[in-house]
């Protein structure tokens, strides 16, 4: 690392100085487990099967990830990379055995930076229980280099069968849209409340306010743990009309103070909208993605709205997937410099530009962007 290390990031738009960019090497279609549903018979992975993603897909994804890292470095941003494990190995704890791990492309899922703290999330998949090890060499180096850094880890979950609703996927997929949304709003999904569970990518950081999406990988216990862990913050549990909620950063994306990008197909809680509007925030409905579900890369478990999964370099500069020209035009019309980045080859490995990164340092200090209360917020 050539630049001095300083862990500091309070939001997703202050000028970016240091970041982690993930790697695609070794990524697996996970072996079956209670929280994961994979079924791609047309691409060689019918339900119940597993194995490494094809070599040509790995090479294409690595090329785009390396290109993205080079682009960021060219703008003076320090870029660090994780160390992949052998994700094909069987793992176990005293209470379960899992035939594969997953990968380390989406560090945003695992690590949450709040100010000078980096927090390792619980994770909710057995296949991702050991994924934090890919980032430990980096975290150790940050800890030694920055005396102000706080390094925390949420309680490692047991992930026994008690943490999952048996037969959830077959039951849920048989429901109609309205019934599924009712279950989402109640957070009555695959996770029980046996223990706190959350992915870091379900947390949207906006200064003094943290918005935690209740989802397929984040339960109410996880939200409560985050709220108690950050007592100086206002921590809000939120849901959207998304039948398969998996991370907030393709649904609700803050761009700069006063402006947030929203996936209009996934209606936000009215009280959440009221909270933003009471504090003079504009909620901008995102342009529709260019891709449809039929256009997604093979073995991709993301939705076309991954187009919204953008990375801000500063309050006036955003990285957008290069084919998403409608979104780029929309943001250019709001005064942003849009940096096009080829990235759809990375999607099957766990997400987009925001998923593939985690902020380590941004300029700026803790600020309160929501001085006025509204409803339960």
Outline of the structure:
This protein has 377 residues and is an alpha/beta fold.
Q: For the record, what CATH class applies?
A: Alpha Beta
The second-level CATH architecture is 5-stranded Propeller
Cα distance, first to last residue? 41 Å
Query: Which strand order spans the largest sheet, edge to edge or round the barrel?
Result: 4-1-19
The helix/strand series, from N terminus to C terminus, equals EEEHEEEEEHEHHEEHEEEHEEEHEE
Compute the number of helices. 7
As residue ranges, the low-confidence spans are: none
Helix-residue proportion? 10-25%
Instruction: Count the domains.
Output: 1
Class from helix and strand fractions: alpha/beta
Q: Assign the CATH superfamily.
A: L-arginine/glycine Amidinotransferase, Chain A
Q: What is the fold named in CATH at topology level?
A: L-arginine/glycine Amidinotransferase, Chain A
Radius of gyration: 19 Å
What spatial form do the alpha-carbon principal axes imply?
globular
Number of strands: 19
- Could you tell me the strand content as a percent range? 15-25%
For the report, how would you describe the main beta sheet? Answer: 3 strands, mixed
Mean pLDDT: 97
Keywords: Kinase, Serine/threonine-protein kinase, Transferase
GO molecular function, one term: protein serine/threonine kinase activity
Family: Belongs to the amidinotransferase family.
Protein name: Serine/threonine protein kinase
């Amino acid at each position: 690392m050539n630049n001095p290390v300083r862990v500091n990031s309070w939001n997703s738009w202050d000028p970016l100085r240091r970041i982690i960019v993930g790697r695609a090497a070794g990524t697996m279609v996970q072996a079956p487990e209670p929280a994961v549903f994979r079924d791609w018979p047309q691409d060689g992975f019918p339900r119940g099967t597993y194995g490494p993603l094809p070599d040509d897909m790995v090479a294409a994804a690595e090329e785009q990830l390396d290109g993205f890292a080079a682009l960021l470095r060219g703008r003076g941003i320090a870029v660090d990379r994780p160390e992949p494990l052998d994700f094909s190995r069987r793992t176990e704890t005293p209470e379960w055995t899992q035939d594969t791990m997953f990968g380390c492309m989406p560090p945003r899922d695992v690590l949450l930076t709040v100010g000078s703290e980096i927090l390792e999330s619980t994770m909710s998949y057995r296949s991702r229980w050991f994924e934090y090890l890919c980032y430990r060499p980096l975290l150790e180096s940050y800890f030694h280099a920055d005396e102000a850094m706080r390094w925390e880890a949420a309680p490692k979950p047991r992930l026994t069968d008690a943490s999952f609703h048996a037969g959830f996927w077959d039951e849920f997929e048989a429901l109609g849209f309205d019934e599924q949304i009712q279950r989402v709003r109640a957070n009555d999904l695959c996770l029980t409340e046996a223990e706190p569970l959350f992915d870091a990518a379900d947390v949207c950081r906006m200064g003094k306010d943290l918005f935690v999406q209740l989802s397929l990988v984040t339960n109410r216990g996880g939200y409560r743990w985050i709220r108690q862990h950050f007592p100086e913050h206002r921590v809000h549990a939120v849901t959207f009309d998304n039948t398969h909620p998996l991370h907030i950063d393709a649904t609700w994306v803050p761009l700069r103070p006063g402006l947030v990008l929203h996936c209009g197909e996934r209606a936000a809680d009215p009280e959440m909208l009221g909270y933003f509007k009471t504090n003079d925030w504009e909620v901008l409905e995102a342009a529709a993605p260019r891709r449809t579900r039929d256009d997604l890369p093979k073995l991709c478990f993301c939705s076309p709205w991954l187009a919204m999964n953008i990375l801000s370099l500063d309050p006036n500069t955003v990285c957008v997937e290069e084919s998403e020209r409608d979104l780029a035009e929309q943001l250019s019309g709001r005064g942003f410099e849009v940096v096009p980045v080829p990235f759809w080859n990375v999607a099957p490995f766990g997400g987009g530009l925001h998923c593939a990164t985690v902020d380590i340092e941004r300029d700026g200090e803790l600020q309160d962007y929501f001085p006025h209360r509204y409803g339960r917020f």
